[in-house]
């Protein structure tokens, strides 16, 4: 117990010390050059704070969803070693069917079109 208390005390003290140093150490003198966006040595052409398209986030979420689907279905070939492989196959088919129906719905609603 004494060793654990010592380790926690040293960790907390070191974290507090480093956090305090990180607030006082850097010199922050922002000027126009530091606040302007960097574009490979050229003068900035416009604002760097333009919002992203919502369609970009939709496609990114769909990519993550289907990427996770592959991760969930990866152990499926080893399912024939289970007691009831038909049960596992039925659940995998249900997951694939649900994701396929979701993709068809997005496709028919025009959610995957970049141009409007």
TrEMBL record:
Catalysed reactions listed for this entry: a ubiquinone + NADH + 5 H(+)(in) = a ubiquinol + NAD(+) + 4 H(+)(out)
Keyword terms: Electron transport, Membrane, Mitochondrion, NAD, Respiratory chain, Translocase, Transmembrane, Transmembrane helix, Transport, Ubiquinone
Gene3D superfamilies: NADH:ubiquinone/plastoquinone oxidoreductase, chain 3
InterPro entries cross-referenced by the UniProt entry: NADH_UbQ/plastoQ_OxRdtase_su3, NDAH_ubi_oxred_su3_sf
Record's subcellular location: Mitochondrion membrane
Name of the protein: NADH-ubiquinone oxidoreductase chain 3
EC number in record: 7.1.1.2
Gene transcribed to yield this protein: ND3
Role description: Core subunit of the mitochondrial membrane respiratory chain NADH dehydrogenase (Complex I) which catalyzes electron transfer from NADH through the respiratory chain, using ubiquinone as an electron acceptor. Essential for the catalytic activity of complex I.
Membrane topology field: Multi-pass membrane protein
Gene Ontology, cellular component aspect: mitochondrial membrane; NADH dehydrogenase complex
Similarity remark: Belongs to the complex I subunit 3 family.
Predominant place of localization: mitochondrion
Xref: Pfam families: Oxidored_q4 (PF00507)
Segments passing through the bilayer: 52-76, 88-107
One MF term in the entry's GO annotations: NADH dehydrogenase (ubiquinone) activity
């Amino acid at each position: 117990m004494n060793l654990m208390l010592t380790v926690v005390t040293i960790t907390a003290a070191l974290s507090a010390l480093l956090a305090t140093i990180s607030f006082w150490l850097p010199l922050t003198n922002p000027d126009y050059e530091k606040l302007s966006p960097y574009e490979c040595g050229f003068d900035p052409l416009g604002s760097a704070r333009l919002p992203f398209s919502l369609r970009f986030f939709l496609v990114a979420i769909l990519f993550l969803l289907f990427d996770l689907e592959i991760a969930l279905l990866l152990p499926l070939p080893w399912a024939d070693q289970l007691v009831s492989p038909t049960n596992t196959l039925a659940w995998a088919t249900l997951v694939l069917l649900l994701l396929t129906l979701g993709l068809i719905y997005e496709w028919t609603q025009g959610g995957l079109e970049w141009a409007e």
